[in-house]
Design brief:
Oligomer: single chain
Strand content: 25-35%
Strand order of the largest sheet: 1-2-4-3
Helix content: 55-70%
Number of helices: 3
Structural class: alpha+beta
Radius of gyration: 41 Å
Order of helices and strands: HHEEHEE
Distance between the termini: 103 Å
Largest sheet: 4 strands, antiparallel
Number of strands: 4
Shape: rod-shaped
Length: 181
């Protein structure tokens, strides 16, 4: 019986030792490994977000560089601040090429447009009198200007039979870049 008791005691000792090792060493180690795994997964997600932001910033910078090349051309369509009179003088210079009478009336200037805070609206009424074909050529030359002039409406009144003079009213907008405040 003594051998049997020794075997039972040894087996109990081994089982208790294994239990102690598992309970005090393996289980805390597994818990620690799970914590580390969760921290690594969290860090991986954060790094992925940062990578995506970095890629987005890089793409934005690349797009900005592409647009930067066209900026001068895009800005050319606006009247430079303080050069509104020069724009009207361009219109007066164009009219000299045609046998037309022109009266320019400034309807609105200085107000910011509704959609943008960086440009100001310049609304003009242009009254023309003369030959219809010459008016069409005049409008064509105005549209060829580097400065953008958006014709909102054209009103044409019939010609006088004895003179052939046609009257027209052109209303349009041009835009000036607002000076930084």
């Amino acid at each position: 019986m003594q051998i049997r008791n020794k075997i039972i005691i040894i087996n109990l000792f081994v089982i208790i030792s294994i239990f102690i090792i598992v309970y005090f060493i393996v289980i805390p180690s597994v818990k620690e490994i799970n914590k580390i795994h969760a921290a690594i997964a969290s860090e991986e997600k954060e790094l992925q977000v940062k990578l995506e932001r970095g890629m987005l910033i890089k793409k934005i910078n690349e797009d900005f560089e592409k647009i930067k090349e066209d900026r001068e051309q895009l800005n050319a369509i606006f009247i430079d601040p303080g050069q509104e009179v020069a724009f009207i003088e361009k219109l007066e210079h164009i009219i000299k090429n045609y046998n037309l009478e022109q009266k320019i009336r400034l309807v609105d200037f200085g107000g910011k447009t509704r959609s943008d805070e960086f440009k100001k609206n310049l609304t003009l009424n242009i009254n023309l009198a003369g030959d219809f074909i010459q008016m069409l050529k005049y409008i064509n030359d105005v549209e060829k200007l580097n400065t953008y002039f958006n014709i909102n409406s054209v009103t044409i009144e019939g010609s006088e039979p004895e003179t052939g003079v046609v009257n027209a009213v052109i209303e349009g907008d041009s835009y000036s870049l607002a000076e930084p405040e």
